[in-house]
Amino acid sequence: MAISKYDLIRNPIITEKSNFLGDLRKYVFEVARNAEKPSIKKAVEEIFAVKVKSVNVLNQKGKEKKFKGVLGRRSDIKKALVTLEKDYTIDFTGEGK
Predict the structure, then answer these.
(1) Which of 45, 85, 86, 97 is most buried, most CB within 10 Å of its CB?
(2) Residue 94 domain-assigned (yes or no)
(3) Which CATH number goes with the domain that contains 33?
(4) Of 42, 39, 35, nearest to 58 (Cα)?
């Protein structure tokens, strides 16, 4: 059973650092734990109608944190850093350039 492209690319990661990378045509997404580089590339190209140059992935281990004195643990996530070809961008804000 094939996984949907919308299940593969879970959501964009919007932080100060990722906004800076957007100026360099690099975008960060949270992806499914079983996602592979070729499938991530294909999904991003289909969803956003862009041409992907490269995909780098990393597994981020969850931190142990205290919340109201109770020790807990954040979930592990897999991130994809997607670099686009020249003249392509993704606009998450909806403002348009």
Answers:
(1) 45
(2) no
(3) 3.30.70.330
(4) 35
